[in-house]
UniProtKB/TrEMBL annotation:
Lineage, uppermost ranks: Eukaryota, Metazoa, Ecdysozoa, Arthropoda, Hexapoda
Pfam families per the UniProt record, alphabetical: Mutator
Listed name of the protein: Mutator-like transposase domain-containing protein
Classification via InterPro entries: Mutator_transp_dom
Mutator-like transposase domain sequence ranges: 1-95
Amino acid sequence: MEPNCAVNLIAKNPVFKEAGIRVGVLVGDDSSTIAAVQKETQVVEKWVDTNHNTKNFNNKLYLAAKKYTFLNHGVIKYLKRCFSYCIVQNKNNVPNGEWCKAKSNLNYIFKALPGGKPFQCAAWSTDLDVLLASQVAKAAQIAPGASSQQNESFNSMCAAKASKRMHYANSYAHHVRVSCAVNTKNLGSSHLCSI
């Protein structure tokens, strides 16, 4: 979401003010948006979008693969899966590391890693620690397991009903088309029969 749109929606929304609604949490991955909102209004907590965070983690692994040849597609897929499991299985539980089976079993076989053994490269261990430390630093924002998927789904519906390339914005048709997207999201496609 664009920072100015978020400020108008959250801090300057007349409907919210009239109803006494205060937004307490904003889910997303854009730091400029939360910074703009916090500048204009009361403290709004930021939660990290799980999908965006996992994609970002995955992209950093692929960047590291340029440096470490043993980080092939299968190994990266395995690390991403472990990372995702860690987040999902410890939802709302920030200081938790019990999901790791290898901690308690020294003979644990890592099925997706080369030779079934843990990584041996000290440089990679350091780089992985740095990557994971960046996740630990925002653990409280990641732990809720938040997602902006519903917003993205609604944006897609609006784009399908009121395409930018057709420029409906200057006509009454735009209002009707966006309203149709809202009804589709809230009521399903059954509302189309009553139009």
